[in-house]
Design goal:
The chain is mainly alpha-helical. The protein contains 18 helices and no strands.
Amino acid sequence: MKAAPGDPSPANSPTGSAVGPPADAVPSTATSPSGPGTADAAPGRGWRSWHTLWVLLLLGWTVSAADRAVTGPVVTWMIDNGVGFLADAENPHALGGLVGGLFFAGYMLTQFPGGYLGDRYGHRTLIVVSLLWAGVATMLTGFIGGLVAFIVVRVVTGLGEGAFYSNDRSLITAATPERDRSLAMGVVITGLSLGITIATVFTPELIEFGRLFLDGVEAWRMVFWVLGLATVVVGAGVAWWFREHLSFSGVGKASLHLGGYSAVSLALVMGVYWVGTGAGLSELWVALLEVALAVGLVLFALARKGTEIGPVIKNRDLFLLYVCNIAILWNLWFFSFWSVSIVAGAANSSFMSAALTAGFNAGAGILGFPAGGWLSDYGLRRGWGRKGMMLTFTGVQAVLTLLFAWYLSAAAHPSLWVMGLLLFTASLFFNALQPVGHALTAELAPARLRGSAFGMENLIGEMGAVLSPAISGVLRDSTGGWTAAVWMDAAIVVVGFGILTQVRYRPPAEV
């Protein structure tokens, strides 16, 4: 590993010190189309360097999303089969939802540190560290027994994965011409849908594969081994491709620095869990306390680095986008975590049939993400602006989610086909709005602080991911069905739409 020979000399410091940007920094093509490493940024057809970057990051999203999404289907299988640490749980859906929420508590707490470290050490460096960390931790999950140990390893997995998002978005913004920026974000994050679809649809098959080597009650472990190994392979491949921009010292220092943040975050997350459960608090209250950690981290960051990162925290319109992300990630991980259980419970179907139907929700992103990104860039060139596009997609998604909630309430025997169609169409618009929002964040944030901005956006947004599985599981156990949880999800989407209307936005003068 070594610094890219074409980088400006101050950038060759792997520590990302004050003398210049980190070794893998890439000048923004929006402002420096002819800068180092961007000589082919001029308009034209054909395969360009940034297209290769999109493919690599898409693969990274695919494996990391599968690692985080697999907990939901595995928990559902454990509940349905009465095995594992959920076998004797009094409120299994509430406990399973809390397990999922605690993963996102870890994922949430390294969002801002991950972006900040990416601005310091280099975004490629943090992406490689995140992928290898997540792959090893996911494989380790398959060797764990017992509730507390399982939670600890899933939190550790989330802590590593939390460094991916902000650095991925920042690297795309820097390396892609502005005219294709939203398309790039949509194409790359398609890996999220691919990963969630793989985790949703193939978990039953991987469990069956596990039965060939393990006792039936232990077959779930194979899912984590296979997906974790895939993540390690992809992480190694990405590291090899980025080798010109990496250094062993830079990767090592970034890993240690992220490890330091993660050790503190793990202690906080598990401390809240042990104090909460020791005091007899419900899963809902434990999840709320975990969210309080995120609020505390935001306040801590503002107190310690207020002058440095103030432009991405104190900006009114950026902050409103951050809050909108709570609704986006609530909806994403409500359906990603519980969709198999929702479909199975409503239609009284088998685990396999429910997984295939729920796959329509995740699979819609394969079309929605790139389509939303392309439409956003096209609309920007036509003078429409990104905010209007995002509002339109959010509004349609809200209506379709309300329709899905109504159908579950009104239908005596919900059809798998109707549920699949509603999940697909709502998810299509939901996924389309996300790359639009990411490009909007990139435009509103200062270029030098984009990693910090994306990290803060996902830190705040992940509050929805922490609360969604837990609160929805509590509602499922208390009401005996999923209807109330789906209505709550629809209401939160509507609130997010209302907040988005208050964002002030002026499209760039030239694209």
